[in-house]
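Form 7-S
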Amino acid sequence: MIDEYSLSPLTIVTPDEVKHDASIKISNGKIDSFTESKVKNYEIDGSYILFPALMNAHDHLFGTYYPRIGTSPYICWLPWDYDLKNSPIYEERNKSEPFDLYLVGTYKNLISGITTVHDHMPHHINNPFIDKLPIRVLKDYSLAHEVSVYDLKWGDGIDVEYKKAVENNIPFVTHIEEGFDVESMRGIEILEGHHALGEHSVLVHGIGFSKKDIKKVARKKAHFVWCPGSNVYMFGRTAKIRELLDAGVNVSIGTDSPATGELNILDEIRFAKKVYKEMYNEELDDEIIVRMITENPVKAFRIQDKLGSLAKGKLGDLLIISGDQNNPYSSLVNAHLKDISLVFMEGTPIYGDDKFENIFNDFGLNCTRINIEGKDKIIIGDPGSLMEKMREIVGFHKELPFLPI
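Output:
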């Protein structure tokens, strides 16, 4: 195991600034400095860009399967849920063990550059698995499933869960206004009635938000998670994202589950850029998008002291991609799975191109080899055997395009 090392030369995106031909030093799993030092240095030869490792602000790891389910447009999420529960794909999915579905979901995130994900599920569902997974799945949050009478009653009720969030300085996470019927569009009103709209609130979807709702979200300093792929698939539209940004709301991006959303966070951000252009006939700036998967989600989930940017003392969660060093933000927004070159979590390499085999060897990790989009990769654990196990259970050669190994 290597306690101290540096990586250079790199274009480093903090993401507040861009440093060219720079070095980063990692010491005991944390970022130490950006200056050359007398520690073991790994030379990263080629056109590589270093970012903070990404965060997925909204996923349902237990629902990680494929293909998409349902026929849109829906008026709210509930009839889609009926279609889900009656689908042969749902029956097929549930043949696999819950832990295996969680593993598949975390590998889906890892190969797209993510080391931190929020799994919007009750604690009794995901807590048995979190510490056994290859990436960081957040533990500290309170929640409701939904803000309407359709709520699946996750948690102890909005009042109690929001109070937990405030007292413990953790996020309160809920779906809200995921639809256009009268009940769904009362979401902000319902939250206000429970005194649960505030800076601890992390609101997901919000496709029914009115301009008045958006002003209230901004005034209360609540946070918003945008899942455009899932929204458009289920409802044929998404949230008023420009209005949310113009109001100063802290916006993050999440994938939702592959049952409705895009295959991975890279597909999701490209789709976000596309749908924004279709809605407003203007481009959504690439730097803004990068912040939606780095700085913004860690602020929403109240972990910005540890993650989301490259600064001394923060955890060494790093993402290195191949791309145009003169256009680093665009390089990330337009990246594909093959472009994810190295991923570190707390200073330890957990995924990357096999050309960096020497780094993995120095850390003595239990890794296997896979091929993604024609590129040989090294990854912690053994997702290949996991896929073979799932195929044996369903009885045929199941393909999961979000994990194309």
